[in-house]
Amino acid sequence: MVRTEGPRSLYSGLVAGLQRQMSFASVRIGLYDSMKTFYTRGSDQASVAVRLLAGCTTGAMAVVVAQPTDVVKVRFQAQVRVEGEGRRYRGTMDAYRTIARDEGIRGLWKGCLPNITRNAIVNCAELVTYDIIKELILKHNLMTDNLPCHFSAAFAAGFCTTVVASPVDVVKTRFMNSEAGRYDGAMRCALTMFRNEGPAAFYKGFVPSFLRMGSWNVVMFVSYEQIKRGLTRAQQSWEAPF
To answer: Where found, per UniProt (predicted)?
Structure first.
């Protein structure tokens, strides 16, 4: 990509990607602990089933809120190889306007159902796996609750997430980037891929997908733990008597 399209191609769709992550993450990650508390009715002890349910809930909620940002990101990244006048969108905001004008408001929510499925799976694999691995590391005294523990748990969670979510991710991307009318639904898209390309098609791009998921998980969870710890300290200092 760098050789044929230049270094900037690696950051194609960055603005849409930032919009997506800021809206998705604020819901699916920010509300995860709150949903666990809601399902356990205030208890600190959450079973694996409760964690999975909380992950599915916040994952689905995030898609309903932020699906347009994902559609624009996928479309924008797909047109990077198209030259000049062949490009459908001149910028991120133009992409929102063009999709809404040509395909209707529903076009911005294209692929919403497979994306809900995908995000629920990713959220469960990502958050629940991280939760469990971190808990096991601390339980067996392999590490203390600090940076190396967070890094190890996040990296392992990234691998598990890639294995579980790759098939759904491939179908979602193929369906969302398809021409209008090519597939009558996400299941049709998946069946067509299986029939024409075989089961290996669902794991196309596994290595770059793992590199993305692994690095994303490490940055996200390490940052999340440090920010949460900092905010907890700040809250304690505010509440402490003078």
So the answer is: Mitochondrion inner membrane
User: Helices 112-123 & 147-176, crossing angle to 10 degrees?
Assistant: 160
Per-residue pLDDT band at 86 (split at 50, 70, 90): low
pTM, full prediction: 0.70
Instruction: Tell me how far apart the alpha carbons of residues 143 and 209 are, in angstroms, rounded to a whole number.
Output: 28
- CB distance 176 to 71 below 8 Å: yes
Listed residue (96, 101, 104, 102) closest to 70, CA to CA = 96
Cα separation, 81 vs 70, in Å, equals 19
Longest dimension (CA), the chain: 70
Alpha-carbon distance 117 to 79, whole Å? 25
**Rounded Cα distance, 225 and 39, in Å:** 22
Please tell me which residue, 153 or 178, carries the higher pLDDT value: 153
Compute and round to an integer the Cα radius of gyration of the chain.
20
Question: What Å distances lie between residue 123 and 53, 126, 171, CA to CA?
Answer: 10, 5, 17
∠ at Cα 150 (208, 45), nearest 5°?
Answer: 115
